[in-house]
Amino acid sequence: MKSDIAFVISVLTGFFAIMNPIANTPIFIGLTENLDQVSKKRVALKSTVIAFIIVTSFILAGHLIFKLFGISIPAFKITGGILIFSVGFRLLRSKKARVNNALLEDEVSSVAVSPLGIPILAGPGTLVTGINFASNSDWIHILVVIGGFGVMCYLTYICFVGANKLIGYLGANLISVVSKIMGLILCVMGTDMVISGIKLAFFNNL
User: Fold this and answer.
1) Looking at 86-90, 122-126, 178-182, which range is the least confident one?
2) What tens digit of pLDDT does each residue of 118-167 get?
3) Distance between CA 15 and CA 145 in Å, rounded?
């Protein structure tokens, strides 16, 4: 019984540390500053659902997926890092733009899928964490891992939806500054992920 409770706590803390809903909220604000409140909620819901589906798929069949497509963990981390860096770079260079209704739906889908759904929420670290927790486990523990990640997705959704109030308090100008800062942070995160992937590939080849 104690070991089961310890496993649940380990899963929750592990996913929280790697996913960190609180830290991702300013990134959500920066990426959705031009969308209305309804669209922001849709982005929050769609990104967390996408992340849940992707991570659950890897928890259930991660090793088979990597083997089937010949994907290595280092290559996945490097690719994810490059994608995150490119998004951060766009945030650093972007100016506040007008968004018309014709483009709104595309922007909602685009932001929700990438970079929020993947690789920010369902990034290499999250996928590897889920696979590691589920490896050599029975179905009960695998369901605990999936449930634990589901809890993190729900907490992330709550944080993202609550970001709307934060925007009202801070104002557009400060949000623009936050967007630039988050762009810089994403660039650093992407660079660090690439370096981590290169190191992992190097040590694996020794």
Assistant:
1) 178-182
2) 888 998 878 888 888 887 778 999 999 999 999 999 999 999 998 877 66
3) 9
| Structural contact between residues 72 and 201, judged by C-beta atoms closer than 8 angstroms | yes
Cα–Cα distance, 83 to 193 (Å, whole number): 10
3 state SS for the chain: CHHHHHHHHHHHHHHHHHHCHHHHHHHHHHHCCCCCHHHHHHHHHHHHHHHHHHHHHHHHHHHHHHHHHCCCHHHHHHHHHHHHHHHHHHHHHCCCCCCCHHHHHHHHHHHHHHHHHHHHHCCHHHHHHHHHHHCCCCHHHHHHHHHHHHHHHHHHHHHHHHHHHHHHHHCHHHHHHHHHHHHHHHHHHHHHHHHHHHHHHHHHCC
- HSE, side-chain direction, 13 A CA sphere, residue 52: 18
- Residue whose C-alpha is closest to residue 18's, from 189, 204, 200, 197: 189
